């Protein structure tokens, strides 16, 4: 005996899938303006207990224990011992500790580099579509406009308004970084 086709096997009782009309909802909408914004900043290092030391190496020591170096092989031809990708990453993090943890000390530094990658995305997309720029002047003009509009967006300005002002002879100029 064969199974009946799927549509015949399932009888939903005539109801649509999902929450049924009249059923109480469990959704709490996010308020547009929160009552309080709480910034969570650790006050002590999780490794040594010092005030955000960034130098105790407790975090890297855990990683090194999880990724021990390989057993030594026979000596030969002056080659370095191969390391796993995780061990190489740990070594780079240890070498560049100040740069990696800069966002802890200077709150103007973002935690990720997503914004920089977003800024490059349209340039790479244009290059992928066209293959290249025909002239250096064309590339410089494209990048100048992209940079100008990107800066305007970061200042929460409407790019079309900024371009309109530019063509009317009243260009918007960003405030200097120190102010």
Question: Could you walk me through the main structural features you see in this protein, from its secondary elements to its overall organization?
Answer:
The chain has 179 residues and is mainly α. Among the domains are: 43-68 and 83-111, no CATH class; 114-167, no CATH class. 43% of the residues lie in helices and 0% in strands. It is built from eight helices and no strands. The protein has helices spanning 6-9, 58-66, 85-95, 97-100, 102-105, 114-130, 136-154, 159-167. The relative contact order is 0.05.
Q: H/E order of the elements?
A: HHHHHHHH
Number of strands: 0
| Number of helices, counting only DSSP H or I runs of 4 residues or more | 8
Task: Output mean pLDDT.
Answer: 78
Query: Segments where pLDDT lies below 50 for 5+ residues?
Result: none
Shape: extended
Q: By helix and strand content, what is the structural category?
A: mainly alpha
Subunit organisation of the chains: single chain
Indicate the radius of gyration in whole angstroms: 28 Å
- Could you estimate the helical fraction of the residues in percent? 40-55%
Quote the distance from N terminus to C terminus: 80 Å
Strand content: under 5%
Largest sheet: none
């Amino acid at each position: 005996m064969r199974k009946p086709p799927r549509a015949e096997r399932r009888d939903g009782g005539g109801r649509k899938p999902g929450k049924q009309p009249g059923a109480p909802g469990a959704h709490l909408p996010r308020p547009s303006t929160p009552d309080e914004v709480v910034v969570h900043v650790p006050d002590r290092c999780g490794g040594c207990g010092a005030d955000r030391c960034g130098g105790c190496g407790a975090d890297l020591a855990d990683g090194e224990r999880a990724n021990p170096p390989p057993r030594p092989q026979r000596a030969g031809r002056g080659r370095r011992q191969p390391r796993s990708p995780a061990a190489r990453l740990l070594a780079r993090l240890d070498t560049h500790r100040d740069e990696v943890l800069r966002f802890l000390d200077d709150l103007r530094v973002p935690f990720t580099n997503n914004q920089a990658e977003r800024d490059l995305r349209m340039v790479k997309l244009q290059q992928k579509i066209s293959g290249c720029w025909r002239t250096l002047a064309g590339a410089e003009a494209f990048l100048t406009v992209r940079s100008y509009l990107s800066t305007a967006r970061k200042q929460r300005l409407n790019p079309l308004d900024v371009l309109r002002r530019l063509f009317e002879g009243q260009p918007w100029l960003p405030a200097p970084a120190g102010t």
